[in-house]
Amino acid sequence: MATDDVFLITGASSGIGAATARRAAAAGYRLVLGARSADRLEELARELGGGERALAVRCDVTEFGDQQALVGVALERFGRIDVALANAGFGAKRGFQAETPEYWRSMVLTNVLGVAYTIRATIEALRASRGHLLLTGSVAGRRAIAGSLYSATKFSVTAMGEAVRQELNGSGVRVTVVEPGQVDTPFFENPGDGRLQADDIARAILWALSQPEHVDVNELLIRPTAQAG
């Protein structure tokens, strides 16, 4: 990785997104951080150098205009995007009567359409840089979970990762779907004992990025040792 490569992250204000931003900053990346939580995002950008090192851009991933604006800031200020992490997402209670239809709609738009929008908004810049696209999936996107519409949205992310990998074959762009198990982040109310830390996932992401250009790590399935399923 060349120093000063540019790393764009959605859902960057907390959890895996924030942990990855910190690891990426330590590795020498310049950062473009997107999230709906503007205050936390700006605080993180200041922590990571602000100004010429880390930019905070309020972004609702369900609005394609916001995603275009995020990419526009990256290209205007830094001239390129070398890595994009589509990380924004949230979950729901299990059970097909457990959440309101309105909550479901918001989750599906964020977890599925939001990821597709990030791919669409960043793909030309990644082609130009022969960069790396990462999508945050889940163990829940590898095995169906009883009553979980969230699981279905993460199956979609897994499918998108393979679909875009095939589309980008021969372009030099690498694609990685990161599939964490239970992580101690605000995502889970009670993730259980022996859970992963967000930084565990961030370290895995930086490992995938560090591979030689001819190595494309397509999936990273990461469970805590204590997680059975």
Question: Could you walk me through the main structural features you see in this protein, from its secondary elements to its overall organization?
Answer:
- There is one protein chain.
- By secondary structure, this protein is an alpha/beta fold.
- It has a single domain (6-222), classed as NAD(P)-binding Rossmann-like Domain (Rossmann fold), CATH 3.40.50.720.
- The chain contains six helices and nine strands, in the order E-H-E-H-E-H-E-H-E-H-E-E-E-H-E.
- The chain has helices at residues 15-26, 38-47, 64-78, 101-129, 149-168, 198-209; strands at residues 6-10, 30-35, 54-58, 83-86, 132-136, 174-180, 183-184, 196-197, 219-222.
- The protein has a seven-stranded parallel sheet, sandwiched between helices. The protein has a two-stranded parallel ribbon with strand order 7-8.
- Helix 2 links the parallel strand 2 and strand 3 (54-58).
- Helix 1 (15-26) crosses helix 6, helix 3 (64-78) packs parallel to helix 4 (101-129) and helix 4 runs parallel beside helix 5 (149-168).
